[in-house]
Task: inverse folding
């Protein structure tokens, strides 16, 4: 990464995991999209011992519906996104931008009833492009950090990057508590926020540090550890991909403590652009309320990180 953007350690984990899966996912995950959506609608709860639950993140409180802002000043929204971060942003077979973030941007523009353009750029150039008025908003899985808040404003989070435990499929646990892991061997990437979290809250577990995701996941496949703990988004794609050889499943639910795993992922706008920020917040709530966010999430995540 270039110095223009400060990227959290958690986001680096996501991006490395996505890069490993890139071509495979871009070619294959959409094949099961319709089936995944049908299954999720027909069966809202799936036993952890057989498959990861089809949970959809929601960060909007129905008791706090935002007022409809004045949208008359918005005629076009120029979205900026990243070039290669599947399934969130990538170039589609027709050469046009595609992915979860891209479809979400288009859905927001439909809700606001405004023209929408989407330009793909290298990730490290996005904030400078926004600051120099080459775009109006960044929708590129950009993690909200105190450093970036000094340069740009963010909408409310539209997803988070939770942490989760993964075990071998035949040993999956419906719930994970510190006392359940007493004496258990738990793999984690050494020096990560995930390791720091385990050291504070899972003191009776036997921690084993690994240098990267590949060695961490191999340790679980080879029964060197009982569970691994890491970024749930990259782990969800691994569980559902060919590299895992259907070995493993999530155990327990997500951990989203912001002190360790970040404030979430938001849409960035120029500092002081409250008109656009409020419009996007209103539209995010509206598409969640209508179920369109749920449909979009399930289209891209057949194994939910949540």
Result:
């Amino acid at each position: 990464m270039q110095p223009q953007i400060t990227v959290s350690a958690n986001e680096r984990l996501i991006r490395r995991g996505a890069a490993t899966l890139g071509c495979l996912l871009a070619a294959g995950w959409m094949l099961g999209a319709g089936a995944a959506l049908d299954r999720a609608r027909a069966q809202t709860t799936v036993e952890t011992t057989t498959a990861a639950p089809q949970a959809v993140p929601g960060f909007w409180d129905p008791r706090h519906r935002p007022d409809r802002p004045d949208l008359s000043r918005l005629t076009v929204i120029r979205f900026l996104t990243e070039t290669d971060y599947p399934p969130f942003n990538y170039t589609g077979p027709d050469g046009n931008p595609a992915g979860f973030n891209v479809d979400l941007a288009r859905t927001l523009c439909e809700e606001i009833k405004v023209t929408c353009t989407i330009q793909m750029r290298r990730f490290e150039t996005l904030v400078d492009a926004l600051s120099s008025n080459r775009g109006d908003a960044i929708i590129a899985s950009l993690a909200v950090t105190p450093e970036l808040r000094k340069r740009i404003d963010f909408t409310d989070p539209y997803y988070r990057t939770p942490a989760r435990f993964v075990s071998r499929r035949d040993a999956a646990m419906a719930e994970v508590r510190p006392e359940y892991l007493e004496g258990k061997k738990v793999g984690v990437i050494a020096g990560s926020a995930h390791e720091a979290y385990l050291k504070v809250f899972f003191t009776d577990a036997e921690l084993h540090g690994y240098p990267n995701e590949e060695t961490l996941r191999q340790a679980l496949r080879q029964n060197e550890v009982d569970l691994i703990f890491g970024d749930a988004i990259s782990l969800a794609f691994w569980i559902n991909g060919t590299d895992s050889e259907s070995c493993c499943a999530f155990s327990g639910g997500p951990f989203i403590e912001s002190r360790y795993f970040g404030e979430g992922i938001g849409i960035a706008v120029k500092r002081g652009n409250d008109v656009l920020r409020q419009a996007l917040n209103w539209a995010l709530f509206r598409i969640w309320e209508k179920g369109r966010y749920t449909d979009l999430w399930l289209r891209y995540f057949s194994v939910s990180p949540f």
